[in-house]
User: Fold this.
Amino acid sequence: MKDFDFRAAETTEDALAQAGADTAYLAGGTTLVDLMKLQVMTPRQVIDINALPLRSVRTGDDGLRIGALERMAAVAGHPQVREWYPVISQALLASASQQIRNMASMGGNLLQRTRCGYFRDVSAPCNKREPGSGCAAIDGVHRAHAVLGTSDSCVATHPSDLAVALVALDASVELRSTDGPRTVPLADFYREPGSTPERENELRPGELVTEIVVPALPWAARSTYLKIRDRSSYEFALSSAAVALDLKGDSVAGARIAVGGTGTKPWRLPAVEEALTGRPATRETYEQAAERATEGMRTLPGNRFKPTLVRRTLVRALLSLGD
Amino acid sequence: MSVPNSKPRRAVSADRVDGRAKVTGGAAYGADRSPDRLAHGYMIVSTVANATIRSMDVSAAERAPGVLAVYTPFNPLPLKPSGFLGPVRVPLADKEVVHHGQPIGFVVAETYEQARAAAMLVSADYDERPAAVSLEAGLPGAKEPDSVDGGPAVVTVLADGVGSIDEALRAAEVTLAATYTTAQQQHTPMEPHSAVTAWSGGRLTVHSSSQGAGVLASDLATALEVERGDVRALGPYVGGAFGGKYATYAQTRLAAAAARKLGRPVKTVNTREQVFTATATRAATRQEVTLGARRDGMLTAVRHDAWSGAAIGSATVEAGGHHSSLTWYASPNIQVGAKYVPLNVPEATIMRAPGEAPGSFALECAMDELAGELGIDPLELRIRNHATTDPHSGKPWSSKHLLECYRTGAERFGWSRRAKEPGSTADGDWLTGTGMATAVFPALRFPATMKVRFQADGTAAVSGSTADLGTGMWTVLSVVGSRALGLPAHRIKPALGDSALSDAGFVGGSAGTASVGSAILAAAGEAQKALIKLAVEHERSPFHGLDPDSVRYENGRLTADGGPSEDFDTVLAATGRPGVEAEGSSAPDQSQDYAYASFGAQFCEVRVNRWTSEIRVSRMLAVMDGGTVVNEKTARSQILGGMVWGLSSALHEGLHFDSAGRPANADLAGYLIPVNADTPAVDVHFLDHPDTRFNALGARGLGEIGIVGVAAAVANAVHHATGKRIRDLPITLDQLLD
Assistant:
């Protein structure tokens, strides 16, 4: 770990005022501290923001608002989240371990870095960590890597389960900087790697995620998060699906679909949603719609199984909501 | 994880005597020691797999805060080759890099953080060469080791009149040939390798967990060119070893040499990443098995060839055939062979059931495939080929109840309800299947000396330099000492993990309990004799002047025929002596007329999702024939741990390297082992038939057999569930997706 300056902020204004170009905000620390030990992240300044008043879960007619410092475990167990947005609760419970969920913040979850092993190994080339150094994964071990949104520079997946659920629900993030607040839809917040994989999102230097806003969606009560992985718990997704279904009688009136573990960012699938809408809620419909999920997928020799797995994940998730 | 209770009648089931200290933080592990003036060391490891180091820039590191010294191949520490299992690579001795993550430097600083930060400032300039990492690609260059287990690399057993194994296979009514692969693995003990080293007056004290304090002391004495008696090694608590703490790896050697040079104690603790690359691993294997059989399933010829990936400069093999097909089934013709392929990967060493773990995967899958081919129940096929004598040596087994393992297991597991057709059973969206496998592990004994001391406070000390790897050796000392002396366990004071104690050898080969337990019995007898001798010879003793043959020891008390009867502490008090002690030794003195092994049967049930193909094990059972069960509780834990590891090998574990030789998952986030949610109800049942031909205790080993056969049982169950035969470990869902 490199030496760094550490301070604790009392208020949001205080935190923003102290932040410089090379500042990292410390919330739960479950990603930051880990990556600082590995010298993958080497901020000159770390500002502890845990005292900031950004811990709350509020539900109302306009939807759900979650403070960025709220802990994952608290949101996962929140009765109204469980009842009205089971996909969020399930995505959180499928993440990490209970100990990590007790520490890790909601905002930090959205900003967690990829689990690509080459990104975490400072002796390896990695365009995301060190722009222009190359990508060791493309010719290396990449079984878990992305097939959607990849580029010749980077094939790393975005690791968050929560973000997949939120993108499916059209959530936004509230951001604040010394220039003031702004709201960005989460789907636009994340960037595809292109030739600049080091730029993962729209956050500006010193800017802080303050709140997550999920619009009201009554039929999100019929939603689920299915995560497929190499062990039952404490492992990242090979493929995951966040699915909400609006069923009217025997047919699908609306659908929200996003997938994880397969994209360089949480991946919304409007083509699948469209293929489901207005069709009978049957296995045949689900299988046909899931075919649309693989449009544009680009596989590597080690992850050729992913398109099949994504289709199957979607069908299984849809069947669990109703057929 | 639920653990059904099934206590056999005679077994003791004692809590771990060290359990409370361990779970309350009272047990001081090696790295918990911090002597005065302590400095901290941190290893620098290579970032390429095959190269010569042209230069290293240490200037920034040397200037970094707190740094005391930076050692590299250009400024090495004096160390000689040494090693109980053969010399390990001497760190910093040359500029050659043969694998990624090889130690190439050692920074010592005032704090751990300073040492680590400074280590990150060191850069190395390499003349890099292409790395060889593929076992498959290296097959044409495979080499035969000079020997396997002290015998030849190829062993052939042929019936009279048969010219070769190939001739026997050609003559078979049915043959089955298949190739199996297993992944490179790391022991990943919970406690990483560490050392705390301090010199005083030319003598070294090292706190470090190992599989034998005496072995560690000898390794270091040779490496540092000092007398064996000038090194004291201590490691009373070991946070897991599994074969990975036999050898003395770079961190301990570097810390001891740096401590001598700097005149200060040095502590070093490997990072998890360093444990993966700078200690050792289990080699990856490729195995070809050909079975020849009659239509009734009787084996007529077995050929089993194993290739292992070996680190450059090492000839370590996982002799899968030697450790399974050579002795498991009654085939008149058998040939096993072992070769290695030199690769730019971390060193290989012993890991739990070396040879048996990968070997049983290949053989027991092949047996399952043969059963399918012949339409014979897989369990029935094993029964038909039961070996009543060791097919290799021709000797009878000292005690073998494997058929009872099969039958008891089948009954407890409900094997008779198994569907005949693979892929024909489901529970909703989950395909279900069951599989089984045989487990065999040779019963070994090693020389050991233990000491028993009667003490004036009424306790008896049972001590020796042996190690408790988490296996329950502390408790074995207590239980066997208690039994041998007729004293309650609370009056037994066990001590181990110190090279200054009686030389009890190392712990491994599942021989710890059999070797150490036998030595305790011998020491207890000798100590009783010494006690009686003192009692009759000391003038203030109530037994003074009596014929020693007329005095007997029983349950802590001396009694003379028609004379006095006193507790031993009373006798000691009368004589004014603080204690009386004796050593006792046990050597492998079992008759050479028999073959010795522990036996078992493994059963498992899996569920495979119809859509996404995740495999989850839902039930496991082992029935074990390991002779006397000395302490059922710790014996059960040993078998459970082995079974969970077998599940892990089957479905999770594998250390993967890319074509440049860079490890892709050398940490516990990327190197998967099962979590509790992957670990089902596990049932362990012991037969508990004493094997008194093996030793007076009647106990054979149970340390390693728990893992043997498990991966095959899982793979066989996956086949039964899905109809798909996967021959490459670990079995992951992508191998099953259509």
User: Anything to note?
Assistant: The interface with chain B takes residues 1-3, 39, 115, 117-118, 120-124, 136, 139-141, 143, 228-235, 238-239, 305, 308-309, 312-313, 315-316 of chain A (CB under 8 Å). The radius of gyration of chain A is 19 Å. Chain A is about 30% helix and 20% strand. The CA atoms of residues 102 and 109 of chain A lie 12 Å apart.
